[in-house]
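Pasting as-is:
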Amino acid sequence: MNYGMNLLLWTAHLTDEHLPVCEELKGMGYHGVELPLFELEPTHYQRLGKSLDGLGLARTAVTVRTAADNPISPDPKIRAAGLDANRRTIDCCAAAGVQLLVGPIHSALGEFSGKCPTADEWKWGVEEIRKAAEYAAPHGVMLGIEAINRFECYLLNCIDDLARFVEEVDHPNCRLMYDTFHANIEEKNPRDAIHRAQKDLALVHISENDRSTPGSGGVRWQETFDTLKEIGYNGWLTIEAFGLALPELAAATKIWRRMYHDEMQLARDGLAFMRSHCGN
């Protein structure tokens, strides 16, 4: 396995001041970090990529789309803005040496119509992600599309829909990811969901049911890890946890109380937990 840590626990925008955090994560035994990509400046990420190379850390990246750049908006200008944002994010990935970009880039996070997704919204989503995958291919970037629970989006909530979506995109640079937090809400059977994801599975977010230290809550962990072994998965296991350090992120993720001792302890305990199930 490749063990990763999402840096959103510390920051929504990685700078040189966060490199000591990355160095400490490397010292713990992490193979890589997941970069939040919201401020899209390729030259900034090119420089940071070199610093992370120096630390011996590989990286993935994560981003989201918003109401202003929603790929399934009925307004073609907003859909175009979504594609532009996805392309600029891919540019930053290429600059930083990121080969895998994950997240709910298919539709706007926290934006609802009050209805189920329409046939047009599904079609627009497929078309826009296919265009993004076509752009990603020559940049050496793989897309890992994420299903998000019903309280955060309405287009793709479960793995069955996500797998069907990726199959319709039908591009080698479009795959999917599995997130244990969202699956804990939406999937009746994690084993069935992981098997459904198997063909296109690019990354797994290890995230507790309350977004705190993995292994400390109610996710069906044994079943999850056992099934990952069944399918022969040996890619990224990346911890995604959130706290109160970033007020804007705490508000977006609905974190209202502190649920762990400190960030580094969470990272240390989370890595030990993953290794207890998967080894080194």
